[in-house]
Specification:
Length: 104
């Protein structure tokens, strides 16, 4: 299996197009990424990967946005990841881990 990080953003109210440009993904340590101007289609999702070409080759038919590679992007053992808007208000957050029951 290739070595790359992939992330999926899926709006909870997916009946409408969501304009995701300007939203930031932030972890508890060193990761802070602002999404470029992009729309998440109704009933859709946005895929991000640290190796766009590798992810698209592995997940045939899926399109990814590039995530920058910043050291240990997500720490092993879990941490809090937040989605922030332009005023730094938390839009959503999730605690992830690398042991069951993650991923859900």
């Amino acid at each position: 299996m290739p070595s790359f990080l992939t992330t999926r953003l899926h709006p909870s109210n997916s009946a409408n197009v969501v304009q995701a440009g300007g939203l930031r993904i932030k972890d508890a340590n060193n990761f802070n990424f602002t999404l470029p101007e992009t729309a998440i289609p109704a009933n859709g999702f946005l895929l991000l990967a640290t190796d766009k070409a590798g992810a698209e080759a592995f997940y045939t038919g899926k399109t990814f946005l590039d995530l920058p590679v910043i050291g240990n992007v997500l720490g092993n053992g879990g941490e809090l990841i937040q989605l922030l808007n332009s005023t730094n208000a938390v839009v959503d957050e999730v605690n992830y881990d690398d042991i069951a029951p993650w991923p859900l």
